[in-house]
Amino acid sequence: MSAFLYGTLLQFKMDIRSRSLLVTCYLVPLLFFAIMGNIFTALMPQSRDALIQSMTVMGVSMGALIGVPPVLVEIYGTDVRKMYQAGGAPLCFGLLSMLLSAFLHLLIMSGIMFAAAEALFDAKVPEHLPGYFLTLALFIGASLSLAAVLGLLVKSQAKLTMYCQLLFLPSIMLSGIMFPAQLLPDALEKLGRLFPATWGYQLLGGGEAELSGYALLLTVLAGAAGLCCLLLRRSRCT
Length: 238
Known about the structure:
Number of strands: 0
Number of domains: 1
Shape: globular
Order of helices and strands: HHHHHHHHHH
Number of helices: 10
Largest sheet: none
């Protein structure tokens, strides 16, 4: 256990120095938050009511779906994987330490947005803070679980970039954070309900259908965890 915690702390420090994760988990989401927060509140003053939730969903989705999979490919798609086996460390060690480190980074980024939104844009702060942050933790976990599946399943960095974008862009465009999902055609609105970002946005905002939203996020988390176990087992055999 101590070795795992030390590895996670080391991974956390390495991620801070990683350009890809620094950009996707901090720089781009916070820059998007600063620019789009000004635009949204200037054009649509009512957007202040859900500004924290919408910017958080965008930032978490980008950090998880764009930033994490390439790092996992560097571990499990190269000879680094064999180093874990040669050292007698469980093959899941790298995955779990990476995901826990990314979880902490995304939580910190979300906390920065939460703290700055009211001061910068007079955004409305969620009423029930414990429920908000528990929901945020679940949403981050579900998003990271999908990222883990992508990182373990796709071995080519070029292909991985395409698949990450194919998952990230619909998540953002169909989630309702850019414009109300009710304005979408019925088919696209239903398609958007397959992505964690849609339910994360609704749940963080205290929207309707809470039970079904939590059930979907938990299903995604459990299903992705099962797939990761299968992919790691397959990787151990190759």
